[in-house]
Each structure stands twice: as structure tokens, then as C-alpha cells.
Amino acid sequence: MSKDRAIPHDFEGEELESVFVGRRDGAARPTVILVPTVMGVSDLEKGFGRQLVELGYNALVADLFGTKFRGASRDTMFGELNRLKSDRAALLRRMSHVLELARGQSEVQPNQIVVAGYCFGGMCALDLARSGADIRAAVIFHGLFDPPGLPAQKIKAKVVAYHGWDDPMVPPDKVVALGHELTAAGSDWQIHAYGNVAHGFTNPNAHEIGIDGVAYNALAAERSWTSFINLLEEVFG
Question: Domain tally for the chain?
Fold first, then answer.
């Protein structure tokens, strides 16, 4: 049975509060860092974390925005997204901070970490892999692929992207560009594209954001989750 624990932490003067989801015995296990969408930490990501616990892993749901934005409006959160995206070097420092936070938890095997993100969180997971970070894999669910404009590094992590082909935020040319980028960086990569699937396909409430081209797709959600679990079995053994 899982147990949630809030972890307050500070990043460059900002008060953050991530959520650790683990087993009650506190034993060290492989861990997945889950990086939420633009809306920040929610029950959706914590629910994904509890599913991972049932499979024998831990999860840390990363807070990138700060406690004062918990439950804020869509417009407020999109303003924060634009703030963080405007400085990708600072965003990478934020993600590196979260990675070290996870490694510092007694329940985490520090060399057995996968980072998975959703939408904006997918871009964050991808940027961490792009930096050459020592993680087992970076997993991107309907993420943003725009390169960060930072010096290219050899990518050590496996990279897997789950992408809706009809995602208006990431047209096909950006998907192809990511493939070329990951190949040049020496990554072991996969891109799974789902036909007739839009952005946000893992979220049953995706339509509530009120943006065209954002919609839940139960089949794509199930297919991507099944593939994700197969990847965890591969990298964690």
C-alpha cells in the first residue's frame, strides 16, 4: 500500500513542495520522477505514482512552480510556463535540483531513476536528458520538443516519446527534427506516434483546459502506459 509524503524544498529562493509516493516499508527502490503539466502537481500525477508503487517502484511528483501556485487558474499557470520556458538554462538547473532532491531520499536507489513528464513536464524531462544527466531514461508524454538552445551534450539516458500525431503544438516536422537531434546526440531513442490523437491524451480531463487540439484518448493512454511499464522493466531489470 502506498503512502504520500510532502517534501518542501527551496530552489533559488522559491518555495516548492514535491510529493513522494512510496511503499510504507521505506525500503530503497527504483524511482520515477513524474513532472506534471503546466497545471502543476495534481491528483492525476499522484495517481500515476500510486500505480507505479503497485508495480514495485517509487514515484516523486515534482513541483516546479511553487506552493503559491497550487490550484491557480489556467491563465496564471500559462504565465508561469512562459516564465520558466524563457530561460531554459535556469529551467535545467531547476530540474537538476529536483533530480538531486530525489537522490537524497532514503527510499530512492540513486542510480535507478527515470524521469517522465507530461506536456511541459515532458519538455523538462527531455531537457534533463539533453544535458547528459545520469538517469536511466527520460520519458515524454505528449511533450514539447523545442530544443533549449544550450550546448549539445552526449545523451546517456534512453529517451522515449509518446506523441499524438494530431498534436497542434508539435507538428510532424518537429517530430522528425527530434529524431535527428537524438541520433546526433548518440541516444538510444524511440518515438511512438499515435494516429488521430491530439495533445494531452493521457489526461481524462484534458478537455477542461478549453484549448483546441487538446483531448483525452483512452486507447493512446493505455498503449503508452503499457509501453512505459515495459521500458521500466527493461531499464530497472
Answer: 1
